[in-house]
Amino acid sequence: xxxxxxxxxxxxxxxxxxxRAWVDPPAEAxxxxxQPAQPAAPPKPAPVPPPPQxxxxxxxxxxxxAQPQTPAxxxxxxxxxxxxxxxxxxxxRAARAAxxxxxxxxxxxxxxxxxxxxxxxxxxxxxxxxxxxGREVSMQRLFNEKRRFVRRWPERDYRPRQDGIxxxxxxxxxxxxxxxxxxxxxxxxxxxxxxxGTGALQLIVHFIGDRPVIVAEHSTLLGQERKRNVTQEGxxxx
Length: 238
Description:
Layout: H1 2-18, H2 62-65, H3 90-110, H4 115-120, H5 122-125, E1 126-132, E2 135-138, H6 139-152, E3 155-169, E4 175-188, E5 193-208, E6 211-228
Parallel strand pairs: 1-6
Antiparallel strand pairs: 1-2, 3-4, 4-5, 5-6
């Protein structure tokens, strides 16, 4: 009994000594997290609109893919056609080639004339020195050879083939080479001989100013037939 009474008496005494009133315990707080505090997430940026999408191509059937596709025409600047370089001597060469061809025809036809006329034309057709069948000769020597020829064959007929004449000239148009095919007939009533056939003539023509002259000549027989002129037998030409 004595112990109980002492215990009951010590309670109010202790409270009086502390001088603090009784306070109810606070409400239960949430347990503290053992993880460290995470920083707040930054605000999300505004969404960027997606780029424009190309139009979906129209499906093509296999038969169409086998055909060559024509690319779409792309407008471009008009193409300028390349202009050919003009040759200032082209017209001169063409004129000289035509003149050399005409000159060769006149030369062949001159040998169809009588002996005197044919020989007189020699000086007009040839240069002072000529390369004649591979030999360089003077005008006088050439004249002598021509004179022997016309005496041997006093009657002559030379017929140039118009489709058998070709002419080429050097770039400056000063020298032209003429190739001509001709048919001929030559006879000598005194000797009762006749020769006929086809020949090829090459002339190298040099233009001195506008005047053409022969500086080289060469001829070849392509075919020849010689026979005795029986119609003249018994005639005397002495």
